Amino acid sequence: QVQLVESGGALVQPGGSLRLSCVGSGFTFSNYGMNWYRQAPGKGREAVAYISTSGANTNYADSVKGRFTVSRDNAKNTLYLQMNSLKPEDTAVYYCYGRGLWGQGTQVTVSS
């Protein structure tokens, strides 16, 4: 089955850290650039980070630069998003996207 499955979302306090994972299956994961998006309540979906096929190139939204790091392990067909110094405004459903596919999303809530 061709799909992307995210995990790792949780409730975390402001200033905390979290790592999201996204596992691809049913396609050659290493052939595709991959993205993280997020959607906060009442808002549109926002691009967060991009990583190229090899991982050599990355891009970030200004709102997360210096706090979030995108990476991938092509041997494990897995995309990661390391999130540090989390803020309440980072609260959203986080989605991975690639090969025209969306994952189901994972909820991240930043609150004390």
Q: How would you characterize this protein structure?
A:
Strands 2, 4, 5, 6, 9, 10 and 11 form a 7-stranded mixed sheet that branches. With 112 residues, the protein is mostly beta strands. A hairpin with a 2-residue loop joins strand 9 and strand 10 (101-102). The chain is globular, with a radius of gyration of 13 Å. The protein has strands spanning 3-7, 11-12, 18-25, 34-39, 45-51, 58-60, 68-73, 78-83, 92-98, 101-102, 106-110. The mean pLDDT is 97.
SSE layout and pairing:
Blueprint lengths: L2 E5 L3 E2 L5 E8 L8 E6 L5 E7 L6 E3 L7 E6 L4 E6 L8 E7 L2 E2 L3 E5 L2
Parallel strand pairs: 2-11
Antiparallel strand pairs: 1-3, 3-8, 4-5, 4-9, 5-6, 7-8, 9-10, 9-11
Instruction: Give start-end ranges of low-pLDDT stretches.
Output: none
**What's the story with the biggest beta sheet?**
7 strands, mixed
Give the CA-CA distance, first to last residue.
39 Å
Shape: globular
Order of helices and strands: EEEEEEEEEEE
Percent of residues in beta strands?
over 45%
Radius of gyration: 13 Å
Q: State the assembly state of the protein chains.
A: single chain
Number of DSSP strand runs = 11
Average predicted confidence as pLDDT: 97
- How many alpha or pi helices? 0
The helix/strand class is mainly beta
Helix-residue proportion = under 10%
